[in-house]
Amino acid sequence: xxxxxxxxxxxxxxxxxxxxxxxxxxxxxxxxxxxxEIAWGIGGVASNCRELGVNTHxxxxxxxxxxxxxxxxxxxxxxxxx
Length: 82
Description:
This protein is an alpha/beta fold.
């Protein structure tokens, strides 16, 4: 499955399953928006994803708050992975 040209928002991306999902999506070519539950470790995950050649952004805040999400200025998200 190739995900080039797609953008995925992945929550819980700093560790465990969320981290592995982020790396898998990056290997498949998806650009990523990473939303960690905790900030610890997310920089390393983002760096690893960027090394795989995909655009990677880190966002903080509550994904259920539409005003917060609008401030992220991220357009065209095709997948949300929780």
